[in-house]
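Before a colleague's protein record goes any further, I have to sign it off. Would you go through it and say whether the fold makes sense for this chain? Take the sequence as given and treat only the tokens as open to question. The record follows directly below this note.
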Amino acid sequence: MPFTHIYISADKPDGYVKKVSQSLHEALTESFLVPQKDCFQIINRLTDKQRVYDKDYACQVNQARSKNWLLFEITAGKPRDTKTKEAFYRTLLAKLQVSVGLNQADLMVIISTNQTEEWSFSNGAMATLP
């Protein structure tokens, strides 16, 4: 069960934010082995002063991050192999390019994993695998 924080500019309209959210969920279900109903996201709308980042870090030559920069911080639970993660990154970028016209330099993703016992979904009980 991935849980994602999406960090996005505060000036983006609700329709844009919804498209970003939907693009993420579609990419997770299509290429990251996530069930369709498994959707947990927190949208963090931040002002420009709250988003401090290097516009050029790890970008291709002649590309830089813009005000449209998005950060997805995903706690994935179970680990995925390298091919799955690579496919997810490509799928997410393609979906965001179509849905909101995102430039490839404006996408950053951080994936962290943890163990099942580090989750509690409800009732104050430790999670167990079905």
User: Anything to note?
Assistant: Residues 94 and 125 are 38 Å apart (CA to CA). The mean pLDDT is 95.
